[in-house]
Amino acid sequence: MAQFGYKGPRGVAAALLMPPSQSFQGPPEAQARNAQLEKEVQRLQGLLAAERAKGDELKEWDLKLKEKERALNQRDEDTEVKRLNAQYVELSARYLQQQQEIEEYKADIEAWEEEVEQEKARAQAAQAEAAALRRKVEELDRELAAYKAGSGKRPQKKKRGREPSSPPRHGPDTADDNAEPPPAQPTPPEPNPAADEVFAAAKPPTLNGSLSVPVLRQFLTQAGADAELRFCTEKEELIALAGQRVNAWHVRRAAACSRLPLARGDRALFWLDPGSAFSKHGPLAKAFRELCLRLHPDKNPGDALATPAFQYLQEAHERMKKAARA
């Protein structure tokens, strides 16, 4: 090997790295071998470069793949977020609807409870009226007993519009001779803006024995029962009469509300504070249901103010519903 100039592995490596012009010179066989080695080195270098290029390409594809995975994950997250948001909106709407239904149910319960309380008040008023009637019957019994024990003659009452020389009536005495004429239909009060403001803001009292006589008299005056009020001397009689005039009180309060400007009168009719927010459910619906029962003409036969009051109630309710939607 020494004759071909072999100098060990380092010498071969140095010879491979040398340019062809400076490579090892020797016999033709050695030169051919050297050329073959050079070609092999070039081939290996080409393969190495190709592998490096493939490695770089693989790295680039790996980066692209990771980027696409991140984009896909982000898109999935956005889709999930949108789905959760849509589900949240749906559940919120369902919750609000259920809350409205619950509020309406509570309003119905409160209305029924109030109706029960009013029925109790009417029952107490009826009991008070029955007690007053019993006292009147006892008083009449005492007068009858005194009459029978006395002269036996019934005192004659002067009749209006009958002359003294008019012939007496024939036939037995009847209760119609002493029957009092029915009270006249109360006329609408004169317009009084200040009184209308106070009356429109009033709430109906609970009719029981805890009310004072002045409060009962004020209630009956507002209800248009001045004529009947003159015949009541006992508190029980006032309570009994007030129980009969509850609807009339509501009718006249609605009339007072109708005489106010619409913005104030409509709110006062449904007991809504001025400027407060409200919806078509809850207090508005509850007050409307109660007032429909109180103001309906069928519940107030013979009351000339009931029909216009009920019509005003319907119109005010429509205006308030439009205001709630605005």
Folded structure, characterized:
The chain has 326 residues and is mainly alpha-helical. The chain has a domain at 109-148 and 193-325. 67% of the residues lie in helices and 0% in strands. It is built from 10 helices and no strands. The longest helix is centred in the first third of the chain and has 122 residues, at 28-149. The relative contact order is 0.06.
What is the chain-wise order of helices and strands? HHHHHHHHHH
Percentage of residues in DSSP E strands: under 5%
Shape: rod-shaped
Level of helix content?
A: 55-70%
Described by its quaternary structure, the protein is single chain
Look at the helices and sheets and give the structural class.
Answer: mainly alpha
Average pLDDT, all residues: 78
**Measured distance between first and last alpha carbons:** 109 Å
The major pleated sheet works out as: none
Residue windows where pLDDT falls under 50 for at least 5 positions:
1-6, 154-179
The rounded Rg comes to 53 Å
Number of helices: 10
Task: Give the number of DSSP strands.
Answer: 0
Domain J: 265-325
Biased composition (Pro residues): 180-192
Pfam families: DnaJ
Protein name: J domain-containing protein
